[in-house]
Design a protein that fits this description.
With about 850 residues, this protein is mainly alpha-helical. About 65% of the residues lie in helices and about 5% in strands.
């Protein structure tokens, strides 16, 4: 936008300190100079509010431009000229020129602003004006926007993307961080370039990187010095006081800020700050509410604690709580009551809201509150004692929740609602800790007591029984419990159990290979937890990890990877073994698909380590089997054999064989044994066991397992030269995969014997890197090849197809093209129709054969 303006002449680069405004303008200046522009630069300061001094500076800039202007006439020695004379000289320049004015925020007086407006009004067609500013200058920008002569570059344009931030920190700053810490650093800095630089410096000096990235970065000396000098010290005393007092708020709303800061003009102050050099932005979805940048907010809170006594800060929190209560917003009100240590009042408010919060699935919020409240306060309210156990088990540790339940007196209660909660808790937390037989017996004994006076507990018990029976292979019983759970839901009152029911049915669909139905249900389960959120990080690990695994199967590896990055740590905290197996293995395969070998091996090590630390034999065994598969793909046969022997020695596989764990549907010791027989030279004829296993999987509707066995069998037939039989086997597998959306499963065993079969190429490349369209085009490829069965692809559709071939998800394509997810889906539907493709991977294969990509 700055280099190719398309008719614009005025360019405003505006953002708070540290976003690289001057750096960007210097780069543009150098590029314009190299392309033949005459360029002049002036950095402003407070003294330039004297219009005479400003004119002197402009004259010096103009002198330099005229010396570069080959067509400029010779002029006598310069003396101080009037504004009209200077502007007239600018109008006489013949060749393209650009004037750069940096730090325009210093021009606070009317006269300098008027001079710049006159300069803009009289700028000739061959001239450009570039402005760098921390605040919004008084230049009548509305007129320029309407006329189309203004280009504005703001904070969203200057903020680093996550990929840019990671590249800057690791490659340019030389800071070695793992992917989780890099993602955490990006969230903390929000892509602020100076913040990344300061954080890199701070991390280099600190031994406790985890602590720094958890909550201490905003208080590090390097960061605080920058904020103190570059932002805070530039404000008036009144504004400093306003900033400090309102730093306790996550949302800066005018009325609320007025309550906390004790001022009647909070709206005007917020509006002024939003166009100044203070790091703040408009709160998403609002027009008058703001928020401070996370690091700046942390800096302000540290200053607040230094300046004000604890009692006065508590009074600010109480004022905030009252403001939120007037606005009928109890959740933030409770937050501030707890900060003010008004624990009894906070507990009473939680007690009034607890049924609603449980039904909405706000388990992490409740767990956070219960961690802060004194135990003696919680124990005075029976419903809070129950809610604390639910929140602990569903958000932190089901094992810890079982211990809390056993040590409580709730078992002795005669109250029907308390007994219902106890029965449901016991079954649920036994199931979550892997004690399925005990969970089944407990739940079976509890079902006859339904319905009870505790509808949340009743529905959760039915959902738990659905999950337990599904894992035990009792499909009909699982479906019956799932349907009963849905029928017991009160409309709109229990979003958590709605999510649980949809996730449970989605897992049943995955067990039977109905990938498209599973995706739809699991997406509902993930998004319904917090329907107002645009991202997919507001749900819970129970539904999110199977959803990520299903997305991976369809080839949506970017979105799957993002979800796993958010939810694997939660599954680890909860100890959900099946979800950990599924999540870690999917993460390994995403790294493999991206050709990121270091991350792939590192994730495998983390997977096994997590199993060892938790004494979780199934997670350790799954890690060993996944390493075996990777070693075979890499050609390390001897090591793969050794890995198999280590895994085979475990006693867990008999148990796994009798269960329907989602994490082992297509990966268990029998399939690992089969892999070795098929891959270790000399290659033998397909073992009879494979056909037996394949027929058994089909009989039991274990269709993902059937698909895996079909692919392994076809590979074996190809290795033996039985191409006809292999093609038949692959055709059966491909027909099912097309119908259900499977893609990645065809590429998880490495290179195909004799080259990739054409029918397999339909399901996309082995790795995302292999999809890059860098091969020479086929003969005759070009615009004429875009003609399809239903008219030519548009340029935008070709662009979408190109990004699709690189393995990008719909979300990533939308970001790359700056369009919505629904627009991307529309393009994909048009592409599939025109190319007569049955899937996105099929469309890529056709596009490559036509030379479109």
């Amino acid at each position: 936008m700055l280099r190719h303006p398309d008719g614009a002449q005025v360019f405003l680069v505006r953002a708070p300190a540290g976003f690289g405004k001057s750096t960007l303008l210097r780069q543009v200046s150098a590029e314009l100079s190299a392309s033949g522009f005459s360029v002049g630069w002036l950095t402003l300061d407070q003294s330039d509010n004297d219009v005479t001094r400003l004119l002197s500076g402009l004259q010096a800039v103009l002198r330099g431009i005229e010396e570069q202007d080959a067509g400029a006439r010779a002029t006598p020695p310069y003396f101080q000229q009037s504004a009209a004379q200077v502007l007239a000289r600018i109008g006489q320049l013949q060749t393209p020129f650009a004037i750069f004015l940096d730090d325009v925020e210093h021009l606070a007086e009317p006269e300098p602003a008027r001079l710049l407006r006159d300069l803009i009004a009289q700028l000739p067609a061959n001239g450009r004006l570039y402005l760098g500013s921390r605040s919004l200058p008084n230049l009548h920008l509305g007129r320029l926007r309407v006329s189309g002569t203004l280009v504005e570059i703001g904070l969203p344009d200057l903020r680093f993307s996550q990929a840019e931030a990671e590249d800057y920190v690791v490659r340019k700053r030389g800071v070695a961080l793992n992917p989780d810490d890099l993602a955490r650093l990006y969230r903390m800095t929000e892509g602020w370039p100076a913040g990344l630089t300061l954080a890199s410096t701070a991390i280099g000096r600190q031994a406790d990187t985890k602590g720094l990235l958890t909550h201490l970065l905003g208080r590090d000396q390097t960061v605080t010095d920058y904020f103190a000098e570059e932002v805070f010290a530039r404000q008036t005393e009144a504004i400093q006081n306003f900033l400090l007092r309102t730093s306790i708020l996550r949302e800066l709303e005018p009325d609320l800020c007025g309550d906390v800061a004790g001022t009647g003009d909070a709206a005007a102050i917020l509006e002024a700050l939003s166009t100044s050099d203070v790091l703040m932005g408009v709160l998403e979805g609002t027009r008058t509410a703001y928020r401070y940048h996370g690091l700046f907010s942390e800096f302000l809170r540290a200053r607040l604690e230094q300046k004000f006594p604890a009692a006065e800060i508590a009074a600010m929190h109480l004022a905030a709580a009252e403001g939120y209560l007037r606005a009928a917003r109890p959740v933030p009100a409770i937050d501030h009551l707890i900060e003010a240590q008004a624990f009894e009042r906070a507990a009473q408010m939680i007690d009034a809201e607890v049924d609603h919060l449980l039904g909405q699935g706000r388990m992490r919020l409740l767990a956070r509150w219960f961690t802060r409240l004194p135990a003696e306060v919680i124990d005075t309210l029976p419903e809070l004692r129950i809610a604390r156990i639910w929140a602990t088990g569903l958000a932190k540790s089901p094992a810890a929740a079982l211990e809390m339940l056993e040590s409580s007196s709730l078992h002795a209660s005669d109250a029907a609602d308390v007994s219902a909660h106890v029965r449901a808790m016991t079954a649920t937390f036994l199931a979550m800790t892997g004690r399925l037989d005990e969970a089944y017996d407990t739940g079976k004994a509890a079902v006859p007591f339904l319905p009870s006076p505790a509808p949340f507990a009743d529905t959760l018990l039915l959902n738990t029984m659905s999950t337990v029976t599904a894992l035990m292979g009792r499909r009909q019983e699982a479906r019956r419990h799932n349907e009963n759970a849905k029928r017991s839901l009160a409309p709109g009152a229990d979003m958590f159990n709605l999510m649980y029911s949809e996730a449970g049915r989605g897992i049943l669909d995955l067990q039977e290979g109905r990938l498209r139905e599973a995706l739809a249900r699991l997406r509902i389960a993930v998004t319904e937890a917090h329907p107002k959120r645009r991202d997919l990080t507001g749900g819970n690990a129970y539904s999110a990890i199977p959803y990520a695994a299903a997305l991976y199967e369809t080839g949506e590896i970017d979105e799957a990877g993002q979800i796993l990055q958010a939810y694997l740590p939660m599954a680890l905290d909860l100890g959900l073994t099946d979800h950990l197996v599924l999540g870690y293995r999917t993460s390994v395969r995403i790294a493999e698909a991206r050709d990121e070998k270091d991350i792939m091996w590192s994730t495998l090590v983390q997977m096994e380590h997590a199993g060892v630390v938790r004494s979780d034999a199934r997670l350790v065994g799954a890690a060993q089997l996944e390493r075996l598969r990777v070693l075979l793909v890499e050609g390390e046969v001897d090591e793969a054999v050794a890995e198999f022997r280590a895994a085979e020695a475990s006693a867990l596989w008999d148990h796994v064989a009798h269960m329907r764990y989602l994490g082992h549907e297509s990966e268990d010791i029998e399939i690992a044994r089969l892999r070795l027989q098929l891959f270790v030279p000399p290659v033998k004829e397909v073992p009879r066991a494979l056909d037996v296993m394949r027929r058994g999987a089909l009989r039991d509707r274990r269709m993902q397992r059937w698909l895996k066995l079909s692919i392994l069998g076809a590979r074996n037939l190809l290795a033996l030269g039985e191409s006809g039989m292999a093609e038949k086997r692959l055709s059966e597998a491909a027909s099912f995969a097309r119908a259900q959306g499977y893609a990645r499963i065809f590429h998880e065993e490495g290179a195909w014997p004799g080259g990739t079969p054409l029918i397999v190429a339909e399901f996309g490349p082995v790795t995302a890197a292999a999809a890059k369209p860098d091969a020479a085009p086929v003969a005759g490829a070009g615009s004429q090849c875009r003609k399809t069965q239903d008219g030519p692809l548009t340029n935008k559709e070709v662009e979408v197809l190109h990004l699709l071939s690189k393995g990008l998800s719909n979300i990533s394509i939308g970001r790359a093209l700056d369009v919505s997810d629904s627009t991307v889906r529309t393009h994909l539907r048009n592409i599939n129709r025109k190319l007569e493709a049955q899937s996105r991977t099929h469309a890529v294969a056709i596009g490559q054969s036509l030379g479109l990509i």
